[in-house]
Amino acid sequence: MSFFPKISFQGEVEKYLSKVFRNNELITALGTQEAESKYQSLLSHLSHPPGFTTVRVNTHLASVEHVKKLLFEEIQKQFKGLYVPIFEHPKLQDILLIPVIGPSGMGIRMTEPVYLSPSFDNVLPSHLFLQNLPSVVVSHILNPQPGERILDMCAAPGGKATHLATLMHDQGEVIAMDKTANKVKKIKQNAELLQLNCIKAFCYDGTKALAVEKRDEQEGPPFLPESFHRILLDAPCSGMGQRPNMVYSLSLKEVTSYQPLQRKLFTVAVNLLKPGGVLVYSTCTITLSENEEQVAWALRTFPCLQLQPQEPHIGGEGMRGAGLSLAQLKLLQRFDPSAVTLQGMDINSLQDSKEDDLISLANKDCIGFFIAKFMKLNSK
Length: 380
Ligand SMILES: C[S@@+](CC[C@H](N)C(=O)[O-])C[C@H]1O[C@@H](n2cnc3c(N)ncnc32)[C@H](O)[C@@H]1O
Hints:
Elements: H1 11-20, H2 24-30, H3 32-47, E1 52-57, H4 64-78, E2 87-88, E3 95-99, E4 128-130, H5 133-142, E5 149-152, H6 159-167, E6 173-178, H7 181-193, E7 199-203, E8 228-234, H8 252-256, H9 258-272, E9 273-283, H10 292-301, E10 305-307, H11 326-331, E11 333-335, H12 347-352, H13 355-364, E12 369-376
Parallel strand pairs: 5-6, 5-8, 6-7, 8-9
Antiparallel strand pairs: 1-3, 1-4, 2-3, 9-12, 10-12, 11-12
Helix pairs in contact: 2-3, 5-6
The site of S-adenosylmethionine (SAM) has 18 residues, from helix 6 and strand 6.
C-alpha cells in the first residue's frame, strides 16, 4: 500500500545510500534481491508517517493510568466519539501508543509536543511529552540513577534530558548542554513545564567541554575529566531516519560532514566519563558512517570501552557493512522501518488485530534510529 512516492534525495546522496545498502557484507548475508527489496521498502517507509503516535507520560507528576484516561477523553472529543484505542507498552512503562488511523490523514496529528495544544485545557501540558518510541528507549538504556551526575551533551529541545531527570525522580544532576542559545531556552522551558529541578541547561559547544585546567564546575562547562557517572551523546546527525519525509534536501557534503563532528564529541564524552561509567551514543539516521562505523572506530580508538547489552532491546540488531562481528552487531539496536511491511490502519483492521501484534508493529514501524551502549572499564 503506498499513498506517497518514495522519499527523494539529491542524485549524489541517492548514489551514496544505494552503495551503503548494497554493501558487500550485507549482500553476502542477505543476497542481492533481499538487500535490494529492503532498501526499496526503506525508501517507501521514510515518506510515510510511523504507524503510531507515541507520547511519554511525565511520571514525575502523574500516573500513566491517569494520563491515559485524560488522553482518551481528549481524543474522543477531537474525533467526535470515534473510538481510537490507546495502548500501553509492556517494555516501556512510561509511554502511550495511539494508532494513526487511515491513509487519508484522519488520525491524531500532533506535530508539536501535546502540551502546546490549547485543547488540553492547561491540564495535560505538564503531563505529556510527544516523543518517538526509539527516543524514549534511549533514556531507559542509559538507566540513570537518583543522585548521579549525568551529562546530556547535545540536549535541545530536552526530550531525553527531561526523561532522564524523570527516571532519576528529579534527584541528582542532569547537565543539559547544547550549542545553540535559542534551543537551550527550549530545554529550560521544557524542564520548567514538566517541573523538573535537577536539570541545569548550558549553551556550550560539546567539542570544547573538556577542561584543560582545574576550575569551579558549579559555573558549568567545561568540566574536568571523569566528572560524570553517565553520558548521553544523542549526536547531531544527517537525520535521514525522520518520518515522514518526502524530500531530503541535504547535499552529500552535508551528509558526510557529521561523522567527524560526532567523533570529536565522542572523544570528549569518553574523557568526561568516570571509570565504570556508561556512555550511550544515538542518532536518528540510517547511514553506516554515523552508526556502526562509529562503533567500530570507537572500539578501535578507545580500548577502555566495552560494548554493552541494551535493556530494553526492542529494535533490530546493527547493520552489516562496518566490519563488526555478529556478536557486536547483536549488542547494537537499529530501528529499521523496512523491517515491517508498509500497511495502513483503518478502524476495522485495528479492531481485528491482537494487541500484541499492534505493539510489535509499533516497535518496528517507527523512525529510523540507532543506539549503542558502552561502559568505560578504566581510565585510558
Ligand atoms: C539530535 S538533536 C538532540 C535532541 C535531544 N537530545 C532531545 O532528545 O531533545 C542534536 C542537537 O545537537 C546540537 N549540537 C550540534 N552541534 C553541537 C555541539 N558541537 N555541541 C553541543 N550541541 C550540539 C544541536 O543544536 C541539536 O539540538
